[in-house]
Amino acid sequence: MAGVINLKTMTGNKKKYYDLLIHARAMVLNQLHFHSDEALNKNDSDQENRGMGTHMADQGDSNLREMELQLMTEEGNVVRLIEDAIQRLENDEYGTCQDCGGEIPEARLEMKPYAVYCVKCKRIREENNGVNPYVD
What we know:
Elements: H1 12-48, H2 56-90, H3 106-111, H4 119-127
Helix pairs in contact: 1-2
C-alpha cells in the first residue's frame, strides 16, 4: 500500500487526482469483493453437487467461476496500478508517461487516473502486443 499522504497540505490538482484515485480504488475493490463472493458461491454449489454426474449446467457454473476468478485477477492488477499511482502522486511523479517521459493529458488522467502512459505510447503498445519498441 502507498505511504501516508498529508491531506491537509494537499491542494489543487494533486488533491483532485488523489480523490479520483481513492474513488477508483473503492469502486474496483467493491467489484473485487462482488466477484469474490460470486466465485465462492459457485464453489459452494459445486461442492454440494460432488458425486453427481457432470451436467452441462455444472460445466457452465465452472466456466462462470473461472470467469469470476479471471475478473478478480484483473481487478487486483488495477488495484496495484492505483496504489502505484498514489505513490507516484506522493513522490511528485504523477502524470508522467513511463515510456516517453512526457506529460499524460489531464483528460486521460480524469478518465483513468492510474494511467501510466500517454495516449501515443499506449497506442503504440496496443499495436505491438504490449511492448513499445521505441523504449529500451
